[in-house]
Amino acid sequence: MLLDEINSMPYELQAKLLRVLQEGYIRRVGGMKDIPIDVRIIATTNEQPSLLVDKGILRKDLYYRLNIIPINVPPLRARKVDIVPLSERFIKKYNEIYEKEVWLISDKAKEKLINYSWPGNVRELENTIMAALSMIDDEHVINENNILLPETDNSFVGATAKQIDISKKNLNQILEEIEMSLIMDSLKRNSLNISKAANELGIKRQTLQHKIKKYKI
Questions:
Q1: What is the DSSP letter of 208?
Q2: What is the pLDDT of residues 172-210, one digit of tens each?
Q3: Is 164 within 8 Å of 177 (Cβ atoms)?
Q4: Residue 69 clears pLDDT 80, i.e. is over it
Q5: Which terms in the Gene Ontology molecular function aspect does this entry carry (predicted)?
Q6: Contact present, 125 and 83 (Cβ < 8 Å)
Q7: Cβ within 8 Å of residue 119, ≥6 positions away
Q8: Angle of helix 171-189 relative to helix 205-215, nearest 10 degrees?
Q9: Cα torsion angle, 187, 193, 195, 200, sign
């Protein structure tokens, strides 16, 4: 059983988990019978466990109970060789979900992925690939403009912070700039999740996808 980011588990629930691990049985809510369990636990954290213990986020006794074979996984930025293979795995996953036929990543898109720092690690990479596939209609290749990276894409960062120059522009051009800025800001707030951004903006997901392609965000 994988317990992902166990430090997110409420402190009181950690005590219950510890008891289960120590006693080796569970009891259903309202039940009277103890049910023995035979399970192997893999627990992950997104910070050093010892620091989480010091902060009072992770129970010390649970940490010692789980810390039998510690495995330190370096951040994604420290293992760039994994970025493309992981991306290809996520492409396969979301091809099935979105019923797409995307099989390749362009060289420029690969370069963009590899040069990014990935503060959100593998989860951020998966979200990025998911967003890229959701924007593609009939193409079979992920191109550079499909990769939305907040920290590196100059068309994406700080777009809503700039002043819109209205000189020598008609009303439609001004409105399009405002719309594009609002879309980029919403995507950034929602970690590039198109469905959430569309819901926040009050438009359909398909409409947002069309606008993303229109403005080449």
A1: H
A2: 677 777 788 888 888 888 888 888 888 888 788 888 988
A3: yes
A4: yes
A5: ATP binding; sequence-specific DNA binding
A6: yes
A7: 151
A8: 120
A9: negative
Q: Widest CA span of the chain, in angstroms?
A: 78
Is pLDDT above 70 for 8? Answer: yes
Percent of the chain exceeding pLDDT 90 equals 45
Contacts within 8 Å (CB) and 24+ apart, 129-134? 129/87, 129/90, 129/91, 129/94, 130/90, 130/94, 131/192, 131/193, 131/194, 133/91, 133/94, 133/95, 133/98, 133/100, 133/102, 134/94, 134/98, 134/194, 134/209
Q: How far apart are CA 127 and CA 136, in angstroms?
A: 15
* Helix intervals (H) in 105-204: 107-115, 121-135, 171-189, 194-201
pLDDT at 40 over 70: yes
The continuous run of DSSP H or E covering 35 comes out as strand 35-36
Domains observed in the chain: 2-66 (3.40.50.300), 75-147 (1.10.8.60), 154-217 (1.10.10)
> Region 62-85: what's the mean pLDDT?
94
